[in-house]
Amino acid sequence: MFLMNHSTLITTTARPSLLTLGKYRIAASPRLLPGGLFAAQVSIASGQGSACTARVIRYDSAFSTHEAATDYAIAQGIDWVHDTTRHTARPN
Fold first, then answer.
1. CA–CA separation, 34 vs 38, rounded Å?
2. Residue at 12 is within a domain
3. Among 15, 47, 54, 70, which residue's Cβ finds the most Cβ atoms within 10 Å?
């Protein structure tokens, strides 16, 4: 991911908060908790229009940074998609 700050190019290794994996759209949306920690949550959507389905998964763990909560949520979303597609794959 690249961020532009005036004329300086900054490279970061942080995971994006939104990505597409096959037919699934995974979006992290950490929320601020009292005390300054962050809770991870992820939205996993598929389809379009009236055929769109989405689920939001909230996690109990608290993270010290927004980025850590984002990374955890995205990783959990990717795991959910992999588990779902592995169980629904049909043998040849």
1. 9
2. no
3. 70
* H or E element that contains 7: none
Q: Which residue matches tokens 């991870």?
A: 40
pTM, two decimal places: 0.73
Q: What are phi and psi of 74, to 5 degrees?
A: -65, -45
Q: What is the CATH number of the domain that holds 22?
A: 3.30.160
- CA angle 91–25–17, rounded 5-degree value: 130
Percent of the chain having pLDDT more than 70?
A: 77
Is 54 a domain residue?
A: yes
Residue 34 has pLDDT above 90, yes or no: yes
